[in-house]
């Protein structure tokens, strides 16, 4: 649009200044500029053709900006519609993920429009699958990318972790797609991604699932800045997101960066991979655990149950409590005592985003059992699995191709036989039962599975199969979960439930001692006057 041009309101005809989004006379939304994908010229929204080169703009928008409803799974769409009435006007802490194709204009310029449409549609499908896998919401499509939100309209306290998991998953999936396009079309296809966490005010949520929001403190805009800075295939995130995911992911510090519109330089990080910690307890453990107090009787009950299991009476013990009462710490303590006695411990953890990810907990448990972490080659992983299986039971050699495939390291020379999903599941379950019994004949073991309330359906079926295999073994299956979780296997005679109640006076005294030590440290660092000011400010905020 030429400098100094004014925009005419389609409702009242008033001429508003260049760049205005709403009519100054009647507040009607004004047509916005649309960039032509062929020549880069600015055009008003609503034009069918570019007024510089004649390109069909409407067709481009229809192809590259699909309706979110066509990509949103039914279960997520229902959650959004259910939540929208209570959300509109609310302030929410969210993490925003921006993704777009690098140089999409140049890539699409030399291609047949229908071929380019198919390429982009497949990209949108992959992007949406990755976002929805972690219960994020595709807020809008941008022609050659998308904007996704985690934390609104579906609320999640771990929104930053979910967004980072989605970014890593998308990096992998889109890299595979880029390799395919390079091989088949000769295209140098790549996607950049950026993330930021902050506060937004949620606006209207339409029937088309698009959500309006107002950014506070550049929260959404900074996500887009990160995407613009990022290298293809290497998601960038701000220090705001980094503070929320510290310990859960591997980050590479890219230093302080001057960001337009931000007063002070912002520290930027590259999201390099998943970290070693999977739970809050593990993150806290990296900093050093506090003294374990107040759960001596519960720890004694766990020890007694394990002693019964060692004697050949396989047990299932469930620790149940509301969040924050220490069930993970209690399970950690018994696991540590087992390790100190030289007893094998195998563990897996449910995660909040895991209910829609089939076999997530099962694969974590089995990969831990076979000591394969993903860094080794497929052949090395197969050797590790085969060595352990055949050492326990040589007759299980025929089950190895299926195990290899299930664990993601298929043997090209011995592919698993084709079978329907139910038959495949039955064979995997039967193999695991035989492994449990074979291992029990050699040594006792503790199997720990945490946060059952977040298990997916396949993992729940696997857990039930494990419970059925326990009688007569030297295995304690220790699980923990929140009170809302229930399962049929809890009626077994060899199941015992251990509820946790709030800690007593001794633990309260210890907590006060700990707070006192923290306050003393802060006072030394800040000085008496600043520390007193901080205490007064915190007291005012709490009140």
Summarize the structure.
The chain is of the alpha/beta class. The chain has 17 helices and 17 strands. Strands 5, 6, 7, 8, 9, 10, 11 and 12 form an eight-stranded mixed β-sheet that branches. A five-stranded parallel β-sheet has the order 14-15-16-13-17. A two-stranded antiparallel sheet has the order 1-2.
Secondary-structure map:
Layout: E1 7-8, E2 15-16, E3 33-35, E4 42-44, H1 57-64, H2 74-87, E5 91-101, H3 104-109, H4 113-133, E6 137-141, E7 145-150, H5 159-185, E8 191-205, E9 211-215, H6 219-229, E10 236-238, H7 239-245, E11 249-257, E12 266-274, H8 280-287, H9 296-310, E13 315-320, H10 327-340, E14 344-349, H11 360-369, H12 378-392, H13 400-406, H14 421-440, E15 445-450, H15 457-469, E16 475-481, E17 495-499, H16 505-526, H17 528-542
